[in-house]
Write a structure and sequence with these properties.
This protein has 215 residues and is of the alpha/beta class. It is built from six helices and 14 strands. α1 (12-21) links the parallel β1 (2-5) and β2. It starts with a strand and ends in a 6-residue tail after the last helix.
């Protein structure tokens, strides 16, 4: 069972429908006792980083997530949910994140090295460049286009980056360290490549708790 965390700032419908297409059981909840029994957790997110962290902190969900990560439960953050996995963000006002991964969320400059302006937010399809093709999330996934919508990206260590995309700078597109994983793009909206990545996460959750393969 995958637990989709409802903290008031996630695109729950599209993520849940993607899991349904994969025939993966899930629950959507903002209650710890319902999520506590889940074998994997999915943290979606849309909106501003400070608002999201405020919601997670005030509800106690941040502490719940820290406990589950310490217990070894696989966690996948999507879009803003991925950014929340890191130490801090400069969006709106400096704000501490969950701190599972090293790095800082920073804004696209909007101007390239030649002084030419480029569009913010980064919105549309960009090619994934595999950095760690042995990652569980990239198993049997070809380098393909995936769908992004974001104005901020993560400045992090190279060994955390599983895959990247280029948008005037190298953007960490998939990150991972141990059982904490994230996707800056929307896998649930990214056609076959995105669905394959989601399936790989679900397979990882299954393998972490059982033996066998999800068909």
């Amino acid at each position: 069972m995958i637990g989709i965390i409802d903290y008031g700032m996630g695109n729950l419908y599209s993520v849940s429908k993607a899991l349904e297409r994969l025939d993966v059981s899930y629950t959507i909840s903002d209650k710890w006792d319902e999520l506590d029994a889940c074998e994997g957790l999915l943290l979606p997110g849309v909106g501003a980083f400070p608002d999201a962290m405020s919601a997670l902190n005030e509800s106690g969900m941040a502490d719940f997530l820290r406990r589950k990560v310490e217990e070894g439960v696989p966690l996948l953050g999507i879009c803003l949910g991925m950014q929340l996995l890191f130490e801090e963000s400069e969006e709106v006002t400096p704000t501490k994140g969950l701190g599972f991964l090293p790095g800082k969320v920073v804004r696209f400059k909007g101007v390239d090295e030649n002084g030419t302006r480029y569009k913010i937010p980064h919105m549309g399809w960009n090619l994934l460049n595999h950095k760690r093709p042995d990652s569980i999330l990239l198993r049997d996934v070809v380098e393909d286009y995936v769908y992004f919508v974001h104005s901020f990206y993560v400045d992090t260590k190279e060994d955390v980056v599983v895959a990247s995309a280029n948008y005037e700078t190298e953007v960490p597109a998939i990150v991972g360290k141990g059982h904490v994983l994230g996707a800056q793009f929307h896998p649930e909206k990214s056609s076959s490549a995105g669905m394959a990545i989601l399936k790989n996460y679900c397979q990882y959750v299954y393998e972490s708790n059982h033996k066998g393969v999800i068909e």
